[in-house]
Amino acid sequence: MVVLVTLGAMVLTLSYPPFPLPIISFFAITPAVLLIRQAVTDADPREAFRWGWWYGLITNAFVLYWMIVALWHFTPLSALGYVATISVVGLLTAVMFWFVVRIRLAAPGLPLWVVLPVVWTMLEWLVGHLGDIRFPWLGLGTSLADAPVLVQWADIAGARGLTLWLAWCNVAIVEAATEVRGRRYVLRGFATVLATVVVGLGYGLWRVKTLPIHDVGVIGMVQPNEGFRQKWEPAHADSAIATLFSLSRRLIAGQPRPQLLVWPEAAIPGYFLDHPQWDAEIAAFVQGNHVSLLTGGLDAELTVSAAHSYDIFNAAFFYDSTGDRARYPIYAKHYLVPVTERVPFVPVRLFRAIPGLAHWSGGFRPGREWSVYHSALGKFGVVICYESAFEDAARIYRAHGANFLINITNDAWFGNTSAPAQHASHLVLRTIETRMGVARAANSGITEFVDPLGRAYSATKLNQAASVAGVLRTSDLIPLYVRLGDWVGTLVVIGVLYFAGILIARRNRSSNNSIFRSTGP
């Protein structure tokens, strides 16, 4: 069992970026399947819980190892945040293992290839809906981001549908490999999996050939590569602004000339309330060069309830080509990173009032509106940082008329880990799900474009200052996934509730039988 847990951690890690091994996805959770099958054979849900805990803990320790590096920028207690995260996911995985085994024992007629994919996918849904601690990083379906042709049907079922399918494939492969009824059944099992892969590839090739794609226009993106702490030093602030202008001038002077400039998340090293000259300089720059600009920054709003008290937001500001930003909404990030941007379940004002704590958490408030901006290139929405991992953000923008998406992020805190590649991979699924092109501007990389078929291009290297201009491509097709929403997520939740109902009904029958026996003649 220890070997299976260790193997499971290694295989699942290899299925995700930066490893370009899509074939691994079809075996990524086979160790988990074997652990669950053994617990069913032993009729021991407690054993399933124990191994589920270790499996969830160790696999996420491997996949999310970069959290120690990232959180170190905020607190030397980063290891505690890392351990807390993988422990919570480990506990949820343990409950999942236990639940699947209980269902198989209570209802043997329900095959594992039905129960496990549904419950696994529901767990992914749950992790993305846990309020202040939601963290939908790298669902199983996202492991196929490096095989965009194979996952084109995400425009129907979304990343959640891919997870359900991959989980089924893993179960089917294990059951075929362990089939004892003869070679014919073994081959039939593998052939069934292969048939679904062929269907997926066929749909993908058809979509690549037939999807109507058109150019949005030229977008220029700046990658200033500011050090995580250096940018926020008061003595360096003006230099950081100068770097943004310098790289932007290089883009404007080159070919193709951009119609829209994009600066990354929190590119402005302070508040416009404290530095109104930066606001004026940016307005004059875009007006003088007849180019619009979107930039990340920090926004502060005076609270109604308390004088001289401000709510702060991780925000994006849009300037049109006349230098005006006042008539456009300020987008505030909805999904805040737990701990680093907001301490879960603690009122922001209370936390910021405690001396010595505010320096390792942003104390931000979440945004309230999904702002669709109107530009010369068309209408676009903005996602900041790991909002790209939330499938509903891009879907909402598309449903509200956005033609393309802009993702601004600052991945400098990830260091030289696998996290930047993992982070960028989410956009492959978002573009396919919505059929919108995406321009991604990152402080330290990866800055890139992704077309509506999930194909990335013009990507920059990590940890170097750069500027890139290119033609963003998009599509006007509104896919079924946008129209129907996360219907797979809804179905798996209903499925798990049905399974839970089976357990409750069985328990009630057992209780009634016990009562009958105790009162019988």
Would you kindly provide a written description of the structure presented here, covering whatever features stand out?
This protein is of the alpha/beta class and 521 residues long. Helices cover 48% and strands 14% of the residues. Strands 5-4-3-2-1-12 form a 6-stranded mixed β-sheet. Strands 6-7-8-9-10-11 form a 6-stranded mixed β-sheet, covered by helices on one side. Helix 10 links the parallel strand 2 and strand 3. Helix 2 packs across helix 5 and helix 5 runs antiparallel to helix 6. It is globular, with a radius of gyration of 25 Å. The relative contact order is 0.12.
Please render the helix and strand layout as text.
Blueprint lengths: L1 H14 L14 H12 L3 H19 L2 H7 L5 H29 L5 H16 L26 H24 L5 H28 L3 E10 L13 H17 L6 E3 L13 H14 L2 E11 L7 E10 L11 E2 L15 H5 L20 E3 L2 E7 L6 H9 L4 E6 L9 H16 L2 E6 L5 E3 L5 E2 L8 E9 L5 H5 L2 H33 L2
Parallel strand pairs: 1-2, 2-3, 7-8, 8-9
Antiparallel strand pairs: 1-12, 3-4, 4-5, 6-7, 9-10, 10-11
Helix pairs in contact: 1-2, 1-3, 2-3, 2-5, 3-5, 4-5, 5-6, 5-15, 6-7, 6-15, 7-8, 7-13, 12-13
